Amino acid sequence: MAEPSSLLGKLEIEVEIKASAEKFHHMFAERPHHIPKATPGHIKGYGEPKVAKDIIEAVDREKNLFKMRVIEGDLMKEYKNFVLTIQAIPKHEGSGSIVNWHIEYEKISEEVAHPETLVQLLTELSQGIDEHLLVED
Q1: How confident is the model at residue 79 (pLDDT cuts 50, 70, 90)?
Q2: Largest CB tally within 10 Å, which of 13, 16, 46, 88?
Q3: How far apart are CA 9 and CA 11, in angstroms?
Q4: Which tens digit of pLDDT belongs to each residue from 65-76?
Q5: Could you give the angle at the alpha carbon of 135 between the alpha carbons of 43 and 94, nearest 5°?
């Protein structure tokens, strides 16, 4: 029996930052333990605390791409599948980059809301990491 398509979804967010695509990617691929320090109000202080355990599925340094799948934690109470892909792309003109967040998910039921609350969180997370990277320079 096929799954109802209304349980499957995608969410895409695009955030402009001043840091280079390489530095942003490096934060996720090589220094993920620095993310809470770079964004203390977002990782630990955003609404109701959530826990997620994930596995890294792909790291592509040439494309500044990082992909992870949530396998345990609070999100799995609402989603059967939750995959997050982050790609930082250098701007064509000027300095800085565009960070693309792509989320693919499968809700456990129709009652689970679309994860729109992540738009603000991921936007602010990107901006916090950007500020941290600019201060490091």
Answers
A1: very high
A2: 88
A3: 7
A4: 999 999 999 989
A5: 105
Radius of gyration of the chain (CA): 15
Q: Are 80 and 73 in contact (CB under 8 A)?
A: no
What is the pTM (predicted TM-score) of this model?
0.85
Sign of CA pseudo-dihedral 58, 76, 98, 20: negative
Residue pair 12/118 in contact by the 8 Å Cβ criterion: no
* The two three-digit tokens of residue 33, written as one number: 């333990």
pLDDT of 83-109, one tens digit each? 999 999 999 888 899 999 999 999 999
CA 22 – CA 118 distance, rounded (Å):
23
Which residues does 23 contact at the CB level (< 8 Å), separation at least 6? 133
The token pair that represents 114 in the structure block: 């679309």
For residue 55, give the amino acid letter.
Answer: I
Strand partners, 79: 107
